[in-house]
Amino acid sequence: IRKRRRINQFTKPGKILDIGCGRGLFLDVMRRGGWSTVGTELNEETASYAIKVYDLKILSGDIIQHQLPAESLNAININQVLEHLKNPHEVIEECHRLLRKGGVLIISVPDLRSPQFTIGKENWFLLDLPFHLFHFTEEGLSRLLQKNKFKVKRIKRFSLEYNPFGWLQTLLNISGVRFNLLYDLLKTRELRGKEMESIKLTGIVATLFLLPIYFPIALVLSVLEPLLWKRGGSIEV
């Protein structure tokens, strides 16, 4: 709902595309706010869930292959997806083609120059190798957008959804607890799969012991990150 309000500050409700829409929760929120919605999703099982549960229009595969009409959209959302794509530059070009004059493109990605990465290095939760094919910085993403005739109006360096947990899981990883254990424990039962088989009781106990220590530290660092260092583990442009 907060993101819907931010989008509404720049453009009136119209048609929005969510690239990598997952299970469709964001599109459902936008539709309830008066938007016409369409999404793309590479995972067919996830796309089927969005169609079945939320009755959404979801296109399978890459956005470029569908050749949607030019200047047919008021807004496009790419939330923690661009770094997973094999062709991020081409996708940004396509977004410019699809947006109407005055349209809005919202992108959120992990920032490789954030203190989270500087401290965490290979233990950084949002590094997510090998699933992240590209790694962006705030400056690099801004240049990519400007190269494709976009104007960067606002950079949001704090994300309640990603930054506190990013710090928390990174600190746990640095401590030597099984890599990304807390994240795996918090996944839905369908997403956990066979990963649960490798989780040992000692790792769970260690995580529970460290949580009350690291959680307040993670919150403080999440607040200080944009204030002192002008960076964010996850940024939204």
From TrEMBL:
Keywords, in A-Z order: Membrane, Transmembrane, Transmembrane helix
Transmembrane segments: 201-224
Protein name (Swiss-Prot/TrEMBL): Methyltransferase type 11 domain-containing protein
Keyword Calcium: no
Database matches in Gene3D superfamilies: Vaccinia Virus protein VP39
